[in-house]
Every structure is written in C-alpha cells, then in structure tokens.
Amino acid sequence: MYKILSAEKLNSVIYKMVVEAPRAAEHCQPGQFIIVRADEYGERIPLTICDYDRAAGTITIVFQPIGNSTKRLAEFKAGDSFMDFVGPLGKPSDLVSTPIEELKKRHMVFIAGGVGTAPVYCQVKWLHEHGITADVIIGCKTHDILIMEDEFKKVSNLYVTTDDGSYQRKGMVTQCLQDLIEKEGRHYDWCVAIGPMIMMKFVCKMTKEYGIHTVVSMNPIMVDGTGMCGACRLIVGDQVKFA
Amino acid sequence: MAIEVDMMKKVPVREQDPKVRATNFDEVCLGYNAEEAQAESTRCLNCKNPKCVAGCPVRINIPAFIQKIKGGDFRGAYETISESSSLPAVCGRVCPQETQCEGKCIRGIKGEAVSIGKLERFAADWAKENGVKPQPAAQKNGHKVAVIGAGPSGLTCAGDLAKMGYDVTIFEALHKAGGVLAYGIPEFRLPKDRVVQKEIENVQGLGVKIQTDVVIGKSVTVDELMEKEGYEAVFIGSGAGLPRFMNIPGETALGVFSANEYLTRNNLMKAYRDDYYTPIHRGKKVVVVGGGNVAMDAARTALRLGAEVHIVYRRSEAELPARREEVHHAKEEGIIFDLLTNPVEILEDEQTGWVKGVRLIRMELGEPDASGRRRPVEIPGSEYVMDCDTVIMALGTSPNPLISSTTDGLEVNKKNCILANEETGKTTKEGVFAGGDAVTGAATVILAMGAGKDAAKSIDEYIRSKNS
Question: Which residue in chain B has the smallest CA separation from A85?
C-alpha cells in the first residue's frame, strides 16, 4: 500500500496528491510516469510525475478525474493509501541525458495547457536546479482554473494567458508564443509542449513555421506500462513506436 | 458403481458442455474425481524403463505417483510429484502433455496414452482441498537471493531455494504475482483464485517474500540489488513480455490488439467482470491472427465475450503449435478456423479510425523451412476481404529489454534473449542467473519451471563455493 501524505484540489477539476513511494522517488527523472491503481477493482492509470522528493521518498501526482477510475482516485484523502503505485516508468526527458553545457546554449520555451501543466513543472524545476531558467507559457480558459502559478514563478520566467483575458494575457498559447517572438524579442530554438492534443497540434504548426525543434507529450492508452501489451503504440513519422 | 475401463482408451474426463461454457469463464475441464482417477491409473503399465519420465522436463517420477493413486494414497502421490514440481496443479492443466510425458507413453503405441496430465491435476487438486502443503526448510541459512519475476520460473526457483534455507525475495513488476499464469492464461483454463493463487501461497508458505509493483531496471536495478540491498545472487525470470506485430498497414487502427493486451485486460484486470473497472472491447466479429496457445486463449476469450471468432493461421491444421486439447476445445465451442490464410492489410474506417476488415491472402505449403515445418507461400491473386470489428495479433512475444539494458555486463542475443548456460542458468554476469522465456523466448510453463529448478541448484552451489 502507498500512503497519501497530502491531497488537495488545485481548482474545480484538478487534484494534487503527494504519495509515499520510496523506490519510485529514488529513481525517477523528469518526463517519466507512474501507474496507480486505487484498489482491487481499479484500472492501472498512467500519470506523468509532477514532482518528487528523493529524501522524503515521495512522488507528486496531478490529475483531472474524467473516467470512472480517475474519479475513484479523486475520492482518496490524505492518510488513505493506494493499493498500487509503480514506477518510474517510461523514458526520461531528453534533458536528463543532454550535457548541461549544451542545455545552457539552448533557448527553450515550455508550453503547458490544462492538466499538462503538471509534467512541465517537473522538467522546468529540474532545469532550474541545474542553473537554467526557461520560459514557460501556461494557457488556460479562465483565471480560476490556472494551477501551480506560484511554483512556476520560483523556477521559470512565467507567462500566463487566458482565453477570456481574465488574467494577464488574452488568447491562446500560440498567440502568446507569437507575441513573445515577434513583439517581445524572445528567441527560441527548442520547444516542449504538453497539454490537450489540439493545443499541441497548433503549437507544432506554429513552431514548424519558425523552425523551432518541438517535443510533445503523448499519453496513449496503457495497461501494464512496461511495454508488455503494446496498447501504447502510435505512429511517429512513418514508424510505429511504443510510448 | 465401478467404472469400466477400456485399456486402449483414456477414462473420459468430465467437461462443461461446449454450448454452456461458450458463455461463461468457468473452468472447461472439470477433472477426475477419486474414482475416475483410480480407474485411469490402472491403465499405467508401470514400465521398468519409464519413457514418460524422460519426456517430462522436470523428471517427475510418473509411474510412482500413478501407482500411489492406484493404491488410494493420494497424499503420497502429491508428495512424489512435489519432489520435482512446485506447481503441479498448474502443469496438470497447461502442459503440452501430448508432446511430453504422454507422447512417450508405451500405452500410447497401440491405444491412447495414460492421462498423465489429468492424474497429476487430480493429485494436486486433492492436496489443495485437503490442506496438504509443501514443508518449509527447518533452518534458514541467512543468505539472501533475489528473484525477478513471479512467473513459473521465478516461483519455482524461489520455492526451491527457500526449501534449501535461503532468504528469498521475488520482485514482480505487475500488481499481482503469477506472471503469465495471472495475465496470460485465461480463467477457463487455469482458475486464478482456486489454483494460481493457492500455488503462490504455497511458495510464500515456504518463506518466500513477494514484492509486487517493482519494475527491475526502473524502480531499482540488478546492480543495486546486489550492491546496496545485500542479495548475493539474482535469478532473472522476467519472461517474454514484448508482443510482436505484423508491421502491415492499418495495424494502429482502433480495435487492433496484441493478444497480450486483450488477455491482460481480461485475466489480470478481470475486464469480463462487471465489478472491475478496466474495460474491454466486446467485438461482434473478431479475427485472431496466429495458431499457438495464446491465439486459442484470445479466440476463446473473445467468443465468451459474445463475438463470432475466426482464427487466421498461415499454415495448415497439422502445424498449429497450440496444444491439441485447446484446438479441440476451441472447435467444440464454435471458433472458425481459416487455415492457410494470412493478413496483408488491416482495413480502417476513415471516419471513425476503427477496424472494418482485414485483407487476407490464401497460402499453400512449400518446402520445409529452418523450423522443419513446410514454409507457407502466398498464392498470387487469391486476396479477399473479411469484415470484422476487432483484430487480435497472437504472433508470439520476445523478452523485454528493460532488465538487460540496465544491467552492466549482462549479455543478450539479437532477439534480446539473455545469454545463459542451459544447464546452470549462469549468465555473463557473476552472481546473476536466468531462465525461462527471458532466455529461450516464448516457450512453455514447464520448461520455464525446469530452468528455475536448475538455476536454484546452481545458485546454491555458487553461494556455497563463494562462502567456503
């Protein structure tokens, strides 16, 4: 069993939990995920790691209940335990295997939308710990669903844009990116976009025009999370890959 | 009423009616009762030079246990089997007996072989029902051994080492122990709570600890287990978990599954039950590609979920690699076999992204290939389309490179199979042993058990020599 040390609601739909999982916390890297199973009847749910504390042996997860199993997860409170919590799974972000000197030469922008904001935090925090402060654009529909603003401010240059203009900038993340490049003199050669599929699609369209190398995060259906079932296969370029 | 035995024929085993069982997940074969088992045991010739024993990968003393059943000493029969096998209730159900013990049976030359598998199952089930369990070691020796994977080879290796007094911990990546017994083989062939779970509890009863949710190579590495956690030796029995696909167009369409995914959802995650959350796609018309046991399991699962099921296999019936009993059961239940046929393309509905059919081509058998089987050759111009809404690929699996790629000095061949000595399980890394599908590629439960057994013996020798 894996004890939940804290559980809070970040906005009306997104939950954050800190879970005791020493083996996963000792080995995880930004970009990796865990699989959680609430109880005997639950699905195995893959969630990208939002934060970790190696000393405390904890992993932070952020999720938005949509299906039955994630709704069940949201019912858990601090002090409860998940039946299963396994990881770290998947490949770490390429940041981890790139020499720091090379990373310092990169001009990186991270673009986050919705619950995808959480996995971006893990990468940006890691960079900050290694002496690099990246630009981050968080897009959300309205101000009240913005999450993790304070955390991001500590580790990045944060730009927030809301669809309705209820907080800071107005418009989509692509508008913000365009403004930063065209009007505010920012220059980028590397972009990491994590969020809804449609957001990532339009970010890619724009970064392709600007010639910015872009990395997106795919979250296909999974069962085991180790490569055993092949449900996570998708086509990148013309090749079938396993996420 | 005494059972009349025809010495040329097996005492028939009771099975669920095909029409009934096609709609449930209960075990198909009901097994022998005591009377039937004793009747069947009279057919054994108790050969002086028992060929059946030579045909058994773990060398169970078959005539001895059958004679004990004959004499009504069921406990003795179980104990005889237990000297060689740690999972008899499993092997009695899933071993390919027709190519092993029963294939060598002298009775089988003129008539039908003795039903060794069913007798083994009877003895093992009797022991479970009567609370007979293997006995733990009297004394612990204090040496720690790690076993990776709680499947057939890992459970066997761990059980044998525990009996010798070792302090054994099994690390399992999934949330449940059992490996392929838990995720792969369906309930209707191998009941999970009644059989698999009980066998695992027996292994735990020997003092073996099982840590689930630990992915070796990710959560912790083999090197860390040895250097930081004090394990003197490691046995890798991580199986062959990576599914193979055909690499034909349309394979990423919705409704195309690997058999591993389809079976894992159903067996491990219990998707067929309403009280479990994991969903499964209940197709109307399902095409299963492949001819092995896994293909039969996937097909019969889909049938039980309400589908019309076609098995598409590129060779002919004689070459089907599945156990004969599985093919027979599948046919009885109404699975349709499209033999000498192979998919060339999966057709996808452009609007929905779902599978709408497969383009198939007819095959004929040519010259024998490297495997000794006649090579299937496409017949030009014979393509046709079969409509379907689900395709399940059951083409075999290969070992997952997760462990080998994260362990210094552990060598693999080009199929990612770990290089290990066939008799001792020794790998290229000191203190690390391996066996089962992780070494051989996908094979059988009993071969994996045999490898686990051999490795336990050489791990014992290794630790003794190191400490002497």
Answer: B213
Q: Report chain B residues whose CB lies below 8 A from the CB of A220.
A: none
Instruction: Please provide the average confidence, as pLDDT, over all residues in chain B.
Output: 95
Question: Tell me, what's the ipTM?
Answer: 0.91
Contact A41 B400 (CB under 8 A): no
* Beta carbons of A229 and B175 less than 8 Å apart: no
Token pair of B205, please?
């009863």
In chain B, what percentage of residues exceed pLDDT 70?
100
Those residues of chain B whose CB sits closer than 8 Å to some CB in chain A are 173-175, 183, 212-215, 218-220, 241-243, 245, 247, 251-252, 257-258, 260-261, 264-265, 269, 275-278, 400, 402
* CA-based nearest residue in chain A for residue B401: A227
pLDDT confidence of residue B316:
94
pLDDT band at B369 (very low <50, low <70, confident <90, very high): confident
The mean per-residue pLDDT over the stretch B192-211 comes to 95
* CB atoms closer than 10 angstroms to residue A239: 8
Stretches in chain A below the pLDDT threshold 70: none
Distance in angstroms (rounded) separating the CA atoms of residues B116 and B46: 12
Task: State how far residue A15 is from chain B, nearest Cα, in angstroms.
Answer: 20
Taking a C-beta distance cutoff of 8 angstroms, is the pair B269, A44 a contact?
A: yes
Sheet hosting strand B167-171, strand order edge to edge? B209-211, B167-171, B144-148, B233-236, B432-434
- In a 13 Å sphere around the CA of B105, the CA atoms on its Cβ side amount to 27
Nearest neighbour of B241 by CB, restricted to A83, A226, A233: A226
Q: How wide is the angle at C-alpha A242 spanned by C-alphas A197 and B402, nearest 5°?
A: 135
Q: Mark yes or no for CB contact B173/A226 under 8 Å.
A: yes
List CB contacts (< 8 A) between B218 and chain A.
27, 87-89, 226
- Tell me what pLDDT residue B241 has: 86
B249-304: pLDDT as tens digits: 999 999 999 999 999 999 999 999 999 999 998 899 999 999 999 999 999 999 99
Separation in Å, CA of B25 to nearest CA in chain A: 18
- The single-letter DSSP state of residue B234 is E
CB contact under 8 A, A85 and B213: yes
- Predicted TM-score (pTM) of the model is 0.93
Residues B210, B212, B216: CA angle, nearest 5 degrees: 100
CB-CB neighbors (< 8 A) of A44 in chain B: 175, 269, 278
Q: Which residue in B has a C-alpha nearest to residue A234's C-alpha?
A: B252
Average pLDDT over residues B343-356: 96
**CA nearest neighbour of B301 among B415, B438, B184:** B184
- Per-residue pLDDT tens for A79-108? 999 999 999 999 999 999 999 999 999 999
Please confirm whether the linkage preceding A88 is cis (ω < 30° from 0): yes
Nearest CA in chain A to B174: A224
Contact in structure between B160 and B235 (CB atoms under 8 Å): no
Say which DSSP state A172 is in. -
Structure tokens given for A186: 């920012």
B94-111 mean pLDDT: 94
Angstroms from B215 CA to nearest CA on chain A: 7
Q: How far is B407 from chain A (nearest CA, A)?
A: 15
Confidence of residue B1 (pLDDT cuts 50, 70, 90): low
**B22-65 tens-digit pLDDT:** 999 999 999 999 999 999 999 999 999 999 999 998 999 999 99
- Cα B4 to Cα B10: distance, rounded to the nearest angstrom: 11
Contacts of A68 in chain B (CB under 8 A): 277
Question: Rounded to whole angstroms, how far apart are CA atoms B326 and B340?
Answer: 19
